[in-house]
Amino acid sequence: MAMLNYAWLLLCFPLLGVLANGFFGRRMGKRAVGWVACLAVGLAFAVSLVLLAGLAGLPPEERRVEVPIYTWMTVGGFQIPFALLLDPLSVLMAAVVTGVSLIIHVYSIGYMAEDARYARFFTYLNLFVLMMLILVVANNYLVMYVGWEGVGLCSYLLIGFWFERKAAADAGKKAFIVNRVGDFGFALGIMLIFSLFGTLQFSGVLDPEVARTVLGGTGLAGWVTLLLFMGATGKSAQIPLYVWLPDAM
Fold first, then answer.
1. What is the SS3 assignment for 59?
2. Which of 95, 164, 204, 208 counts the highest number of beta carbons within 10 A?
3. Any residues with CB less than 8 A from the CB of 93 and at least 6 apart, and which?
């Protein structure tokens, strides 16, 4: 159980990679930049495996742990904490994100070897990993939305990385604009959730008894689901919000 209290390291390592390569990448040289970026993601992957093992050692009914980091904002009696939600699904997805990203980082060392903006590319990659991790381990809808929008921003930056090429620049803009359509629905869904439940915490929204009391007989459950699904449709390039993907490839 004690090892779960160090879950913040999952976000800390990619963040350090972003800061190191973002501020000092040009001075460090390409070899050091590649090592820093890969090490940051590799350590995050190791942390996710440790967390997965830690959860597996708990009784099934205790495999849902919230690790507070700090209180993001307080307005009257309303608080938005920045905390991590560790359960089998979120930690497994964190392991998938960091594991696959590590392979991509290693491949990119050779693929981008001759590029003049080598450090910038790896800064974007580390930032992408950080935002994906925030998305999958957030404990409330608002923090998850920060990760959600961060993923969209990083997609735009990477798709249009060679912005001097018109096709790449246009593809980046197209991806950004189309994703805003889906994200608008996602944001409306979060607003509707808050107006109904008075909280953005997953624990307060996903409790079956609470949901039944709040949504029972209102017909709004379908609207909440549809709006959130709209966001997922744009982000995963599903019909009809798939039009950015062919250009991005």
1. coil
2. 95
3. 136
Per domain, the residue ranges of the chain are 1-139, 140-248
**Rounded Cα–Cα distance for residues 57 and 247 (Å):** 45
The DSSP-derived string for 143-185 is: HHHHHHHHHHHHHHHHHTSSTTSHHHHHHHHHHHHHHHHHHHH
Q: Which H helix or E strand runs over 71?
A: strand 65-75
Residue 187: partners with Cβ closer than 8 Å, 6 or more residues away: 145, 231
What CA–CA distance (Å, rounded) separates 82 from 8? 11
Q: Confidence class of residue 132 from pLDDT cuts 50, 70 and 90?
A: very high
Kindly tell me if the per-residue pLDDT of 70 is higher than 90.
no
For residue 218, pLDDT over 80 is answered with: no
How far is residue 61's CA from residue 50's CA, in Å, rounded to a whole number? Answer: 19
Among the ranges given (22-26, 71-75, 158-162), the one the predictor scored with the smallest mean pLDDT: 71-75
Give the C-alpha separation, 176 to 47, whole Å.
Answer: 31
Question: Whole-angstrom Cα distance, residue 90 to residue 166?
Answer: 38
Q: Is the pLDDT of residue 215 over 80?
A: no
pTM of the model: 0.91
Cα gap 215→224, rounded to integer Å: 10
Structure tokens at 238: 């599903």
Let me know: does 224 contact 104? Beta carbons within 8 Å.
no
Give the 3-state secondary structure of residue 239: coil
CA dist 208 and 12 (Å) reads 34
